[in-house]
Design brief:
Number of strands: 10
Radius of gyration: 23 Å
Distance between the termini: 9 Å
Strand order of the largest sheet: 1-5-4-3-2
Structural class: alpha+beta
Strand content: 15-25%
Largest sheet: 5 strands, mixed
Shape: elongated
Number of helices: 7
Amino acid sequence: MAAARARAIRALLARCSTECHRRASPPSSAAAAASSLSTLRRAVPSLSAPLTHSRRFRPSRRAAAATRALATEAARGGAGARSEAGTEDEAPEWAVEWEDSDDDGAEPEIGDGGDGGGVVLRGVAWGQRALAAAEEVLADHFGDDVAMFAFKVSPKGYVYVRLDKLTNRYGCPDIEEIESFNKLYKQKLDEIIERGEIPLDLAIEVSSPGAERLLKVPEDLDRFKDMAMRVQYLVEGDNDIVLNQNMLKDGIFVLESVDVQAENCVWKLADVKDNRAEAGKGRPLNRKQKDWRLQTSFTAVKKATLYLDSN
């Protein structure tokens, strides 16, 4: 039963993509067209199928549902508009591969516009207007349980939005909510593009934060207090060894208590497979493990993420 529940959770969090890419010139020959990457249609693919269009697809690490779309010249009948023979959900066969985020591979940190949440505009002139449009869509069409976790734009015309569902245990909106936001946001951007307020052909990615979201300490602790977290922390103490080595450790814990005034928190070992393994294969946590506690200051916690147990 526990294994089935874990698989169901992973399936829910696994990132599903639907893509419609930026405009590009059609290939010069039939051979070039045949060798080009196939276009993903707007459907939720099987998790077992490789998504070669997205190098950001990492189901075992960043578990997030995502959809991508293109804000185009459709209203003006430009090259990005849908042909009469095509369907609304089809992307052109000559669509190019989606560009990775400029800082893919960088270590996430709080406020980075990605796993760390926050808003990153990078000095892009139209970034503030695109952000305002996303906030308008949330305010007009979604309740208080859906919020913006992260927003980031690229000078090349890419917009990355991550939505946080506050009433969901893991903060993940369902695929219908992500698709709905994507559609409404694209429509909003098309209207703004038509008025000439922002550039043409902005590419959009909408996703959920995923299990690799960085948790803010102490702000997020109460929300996820009943869930296992992987915590990276500095060993605190007054002895010379601790002070000189600046020792960094990590563990899989559950929050026991938070003292906001004293600015510290107390952790206990989470009852998960990785911790139970220390007691011996097939054994539960032993008494020593159950009684173990760790007190850390807020500043000593360097990184905290949600932990998904396989058993």
